[in-house]
Write a structure and sequence with these properties.
Layout lengths: L2 H8 L9 H23 L2 H8 L3 H8 L2 H30 L5 H16 L3 H12 L5 H26 L5 H20 L3 H5 L9 H17 L5
Helix pairs in contact: 2-3, 2-5, 2-7, 5-6, 5-7, 5-8, 6-7, 6-8, 6-11, 8-9, 9-11
């Protein structure tokens, strides 16, 4: 360990985490907020270090590079969302060979929705995830594929089984529409009042999820176009 890192540890304020695991979590939490606010390109390691109240050398010591740190931030919560989706789908399939479209979509949406409302960190991650679509394409695609593709493909299969009158290609395309719609609603809810001249007001989490699920299911179940 370098003298700079050792000096940083000595200068921590009272109550600062004293072991490596806690310190890494603190850096990840700070990075999550910085990347959510500024994206990968705009997020600077020195700003992350300042928010975590550590020396930048310590960030480099634990994570090596900004790219590696960003990956760790995304994988931490993204993997949790994907694993929970898989678990919810497993529960549905254990109860029925062909769960309904409504059940499948609700199972898919719920982990993301719960993440957004789980606290400051969860909300920051949802915002960061939305920003991923504006990041360098190769990096963004790799992360999304690594974290979400396996569970998404399982959901497409389940939806195809529930909608046998649709081709799997159509179900896959409509699943892309599902993903785009829910990401917008997770991150741009304030636009609702802009579009309705402030007629909607505050919509509770469960009410919004129910409305979105109803809308998405209707689109999924529409017969193939001629």
């Amino acid at each position: 360990m370098t003298k700079q890192i050792a000096d940083t540890k000595q200068k921590r304020q009272r109550g600062r985490p004293s072991n490596d695991k806690d310190l890494q979590v603190l850096i990840l939490d700070s990075a999550e907020e910085v990347f959510a606010e500024h994206g990968f390109a705009g997020g600077r390691l020195r700003d992350i270090a300042a928010r975590a109240n550590v020396n930048q050398a310590l960030v480099n010591y634990y994570f090596g590079s900004k790219s590696s740190l960003f990956d760790e931030v995304f994988l931490r919560r993204g993997t949790h969302i994907s694993e929970r989706r898989e678990a919810l789908l497993d529960e549905l399939l254990a109860a029925s060979d062909t769960p309904s479209v409504e059940q499948i979509i609700l199972a898919y949406l719920t982990p993301q929705w719960d993440m957004k409302y789980s606290g400051r960190g969860g909300a920051a991650f949802v915002k960061l995830q939305a920003r991923l679509h504006a990041e360098p394409e190769e990096h963004a695609l790799r992360l999304r594929r690594e974290v979400y593709d396996e569970s998404a493909k399982r959901y497409i299969t389940a939806l195809h089984n529930a909608l046998p009158y649709l081709s799997k290609e159509t179900v896959g395309l409509r699943m892309a529409f599902v993903i785009g719609s829910y990401l917008f609603m997770l991150n741009d809810v304030d636009r609702l009042n802009d579009l309705t001249e402030n007629q909607i007001g505050l919509i509770e989490k469960d009410q919004m999820l129910a409305q979105l699920s109803t809308f998405l299911c209707a689109g999924l179940m529409t017969p193939e176009a001629p």
